[in-house]
Amino acid sequence: MYAGNVLAKVISHPGPNGNNRKVLSVRPTCFDKADLIDCSSSDIVTVDTVQAFDKAKWVGESVSKSDRPDLGSANIVVSGGRGIKSGDNFHILEALADKLGAAVGASRAAVDAGFCPNDWQVGQTGKVVAPDLYIAAGISGAIQHLSGMKDSKVIVAINTDPDAPIFQVADYGLNQDLFEAIPELTEKV
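^ ETF_alpha-domain-containing protein, sequence as received from the core. Prediction below:
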């Protein structure tokens, strides 16, 4: 609860009419991927289906296509924050992401400012990621953002503010202007 800052023991009692159904959700990056096993000889068990909620109807879906990996399952994520200053500047991060075969992410501040699309948002109200490498450029490190990327294996932070909270969780920190650091890093990759 509260982005992993609070733990609670919960006792579940049967509901009205002895209903014993439980619903629980797990953040997709909380556990390592399970090993693929051969289940061709598994028993098939039929279960009763849950009645559909009759007050809702399917309207449709909208899926964005990209040549980059999916943000939620990418091995490398390059994210930008308010420090990127404009949507036009995201091309700097996209160039690095393309060279690394990475997904592009963003802080809520960057999304709210209209710098990039909502589906790039990483954080408590966005996607939860746990890549092998997370590069945070121009992201201060608000707790809501950290809760969405804190399980990354290696975190690299690039920020001009030496007191930015992102440096407290970063494995590697670079106190430099991202407009100098990212192009140089892209060139050297």
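The longest helix spans residues 90-100.
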